[in-house]
Specification:
The protein is an alpha/beta fold and about 400 residues long. The chain contains 15 helices and 14 strands. It has helices spanning about 60-75, 105-115, 125-135, 155-160, 165-170, 180-195, 245-255, 260-270, 270-275, 280-290, 295-320, 330-335, 335-340, 355, 385-395, and strands spanning about 5-10, 15-20, 25-35, 40-45, 50-55, 85-90, 100-105, 140-145, 200-210, 210-220, 220-225, 325, 365, 375-380. It has an 8-stranded mixed β-sheet, with helices on both faces. A hairpin with a 3-residue loop joins strand 9 (about 200-210) and strand 10 (about 210-220). The longest helix has 25 residues, at about 295-320. About 45% of the residues are buried. The mean pLDDT is about 95. Bound molecules: adenosine-5'-diphosphate. Adenosine-5'-diphosphate (ADP) binds near residues 210, 211, 281 and 328. Adenosine-5'-diphosphate binds near residues 328 and 329.
Amino acid sequence: MSAVLVINSGSSSFKYQLIDMATETELASGLVERIGEASGHARHNAAGADRVEQTLPIPDHTAGFAVMLATFAASGPQLSTANLVAVGHRVVQGGSIFQGPTVIDDEVLAQISALSDLAPLHNPAHVQGINAARAQFPDVPHVAVFDTSFHQTMPAPAYTYAINTALAAEYSIRRYGAHGSSHKFVSEAVAEFLGRPLAELKTIVLHLGNGASACAVDGGVSIDTSMGLTPLQGLVMGTRSGDIDPAVLFHLHRKAGMSIEELDTLLNKQSGMLGLTGNGDMRDVEDAAVAGDAVAQAALDVYYHRIRGYVGNYIAQLGGLDVIVFTAGIGENSGIVRAGALAGLEFLGIEIDPAKNDPFSRVARVISTDDSKVTVLVIPTNEELEIARQTLETIKAA
Ligand code: ADP
């Protein structure tokens, strides 16, 4: 047996998952949160055991990792017998530097830190988490797996913004995309599920969670994606606006006197479904729309309109289409959203079968009709497993 520990650290929390790589199954997972607050919280789920909850002060990430280690020791599984071979870290922004997963040393850590300008909320938190994890696990390699690197294959016309090239180069302004681990995992799972060679599939992945992005995948390679310099661009999200005319910002600055900070907060935290309905949680919006709330229905219509636009765009960019696949919290669970987003696309050979789409299920499945030219799938994503796979491949190749 060999195991990989996957870490996803935020500024005041981190999630972890221990994965047995022979069977690709979860041995344990957990969350350490409210780091730095008066009272912290830790949750640990070991396979086949009761959940362990603890409330205690956790002053910093290093203390958080000590809590995690103590919980593994007390509640299992024992890390000493799990044969931990590596720790894999999710890192949101790898810029143009990191084309793939990378073994972390001091120089790599400094580069991740230097990319904080492009991901101010994420990369500094990852650096904290990596430092703490390296201190607790000094004897195994640590690997950074970047959300952006799957999209490094995008051709220049797809990633280039039409602004002054010198300015763009000086400030590293281009489309980087995000959700790369999910888009990679799901597009590969499509080929496996259909029993077809990945190289011959043209696929649109719709990752619809609180954050949402679309990706055009040609033969396993990302050729376009909806997120941009940051995860703000593209689809309508829980609290993010997605695409918007940048002139809206100049207008609000000049006419409403809003500052850059206020505009940042407005577009990232107070927009999307939250801005349109007052509620950023898709379940609530859906329930309201089903109960006849016109505001909620109008917001869903905006949400669908945006997705449909990207589907049309990516069919053109791919020069055809074999598969559309839905994933993440909304994509996996909401038949209403899946049907709404693809309604009216029958003329493109995209036909959802309500009898397959409506029932709730947790497994990979086809939801298109037998006659649909494009196969529409739902495939649960597993970003942690993808990070663990890439981590293992990277240390094997090192
Ligand atoms: P993230 O990882 O980006 O935080 P998730 O992929 O967990 O997000 O997705 C969270 C979203 O999924 C929430 O908006 C939630 O309302 C939505 N969701 C979960 N279950 C359902 C459901 N049954 N129907 C509609 N939306 C759902």
